[in-house]
Specification:
5 helices; alpha+beta; 6-stranded mixed beta sheet; 6 strands; 153 residues; single chain; 33% helix
């Protein structure tokens, strides 16, 4: 693996370890991170967004399952696993802890320059999270049928 993949792995490890100092170190000051529903600008917004995730899912861990590197670009796929133990802050209002487990597939596209993250574009299924938390009409049907909330991954 090259420098771009090494930087990406440092970022994932920093996320899993809640290492804000390392997150700041691997992102350039004017970085951009596109997430479903928002465009984060700068390291402070990246850290604030991640902190909100850690609040809602304090045990969240990211596992990278695939890495494709080409020059300064890295595309990754992975699985996030956690338990909803804290308040999930959302544009539609706060969601109190459900105590439910969440397992979510995701992908992220990184652009690296000078050993730092310039931009990332995160992709994940927001509806899958809500289904697994039991917050959709469909998840209520699954519960009545005696199955786990959300489709099998």
């Amino acid at each position: 693996m090259g420098e771009a993949a090494d930087v990406m792995h440092r970022d994932i490890a920093a996320f899993n370890n809640r290492d804000v100092h390392e997150i700041m170190a691997v992102h350039c000051s004017d970085c951009e991170k596109a997430v479903p529903g928002a465009l984060l600008r700068g390291r402070d917004q990246v850290v604030a967004w991640r902190s909100a995730l850690w609040e809602a899912f304090p045990d969240v861990q990211l596992q990278v399952t695939r890495v494709v590197e080409q020059g300064s670009s890295v595309a990754i796929q992975g699985v996030a696993r956690s338990t909803h133990k804290g308040t999930l802050r959302s544009a539609g209002g706060d969601i109190p802890p459900t105590g439910r487990n969440v397992e979510l597939t995701w992908s992220d596209d990184y652009e690296i320059r000078g050993g730092r993250i310039v931009s990332t574009r995160l992709h994940y299924d927001q509806l899958a999270i809500l289904e697994q938390l039991g917050l959709t009409p469909v998840s209520a049907l699954w519960e009545r049928a005696g199955t786990r909330a959300g489709p099998s991954l």
